[in-house]
Amino acid sequence: MFNKFNIWKKADISSNLRDRMTEVMKQPIPSHIAIIMDGNGRWAKKRALPRIAGHHEGMKVVRKITKIANQLDVKVLTLYAFSTENWKRPKTEVEYLMKLPEEFLGTFLPELIEENVKVQMMGYKEGLPAHTTSAVDKAIRETKDNTGLILNFALNYGSRAEIIEAVKSVLNDCKSGILNGNEITEEVFAEYLMTKGLPDPDLLIRTSGEIRLSNFMLWQLAYTEFWFTDVLWPDFTENHLLEAIEVFQNRQRRFGGVQ
Ligand code: FPP
User: Fold this and answer.
1) Which residue ranges form the domains of the chain, and what is each CATH number?
2) Which of 142, 155, 170, 213 has the greatest CB tally within 10 Å of its CB?
3) Closest residue CA from atom 3 of ligand 1
4) Are 101 and 81 in contact (CB under 8 A)?
């Protein structure tokens, strides 16, 4: 049987981290963690580097956090990599951000395959350059049968647009008789969203001290626990993720009820 612990190269993980992981795994682990990876630009500015250097460093953190999330038996990790609003950034920065999935997957896809990670994407593919979508499509194809962590990239994603599109599809299906208006429930509606088939996030993390959602998963985050940190994304470590999960484990989730 596939044993995830075999593939941890010893040098990759300190014994302190392993002990902390073991402790954390004694309590329920969030099934779905969503992250707004913020602060790349400020990280670079602090070092007098171009903003893209921050994005590049941020990409390395994606690798680290994917590995540990998979080890922790998190089922889904959704990462906000590019929003529908991010097109407003300078052209050179947008071009660089569009190259990152290619670079990331070009370098780490073999590792993701080895680690049984399944790559998915949510967002509007139409707006993305062909080189970006072909890298993502290749990763989706080559990992489609993997059964470990689902690494879900939100790329050219915007939640309001997602909801509007879902409403339009619901209307179309009602018109064509596939769906009866009286049968629309939250569960049915959720099937029309880009997260179809995925559980809602249990934990949302946003780095860099900003306390807002920025048009991210507005429907899906209805009952999610939020954890904000001042740490900039390129400085985010495995220990920060464990800290967020520990806080999550100490929260009482009531889903609107009493306890
Ligand atoms: C927000 O920081 C970050 C982004 C818009 C891009 C996030 C992308 C990555 C972390 C790399 C993605 C990697 C892959 C594999 C696709 P910001 O630029 O807004 O930072 P600032 O608020 O400090 O300016």
Assistant:
1) 28-158+201-249 (3.40.1180.10)
2) 155
3) 38
4) yes
**Closest ligand 1 atom, residue 43 Cα:** 23
Give the strand order in the sheet containing 150-157: 118-122, 150-157, 76-83, 32-36, 203-206, 225-228
**Ligand 1 centroid distance, CA of 183 (Å):** 40
- What whole-number distance in Å separates Cα of residue 214 and Cα of residue 206? 10
Q: Is 233 labelled as part of a ligand binding site?
A: no
Q: Any idea which residues carry the catalytic annotation?
A: 38, 86
pTM for this prediction: 0.94
Cβ count near 13 (within 10 Å): 15
Whether ligand 1 lies within 6 angstroms of the CB of 62 is answered as yes
3-state secondary structure of 120: strand
CA distance 81 to 94: 11
**Looking at ligand 1, which atom is closest to the CA of residue 56?**
11
Q: Quick one: pLDDT at residue 253?
A: 76
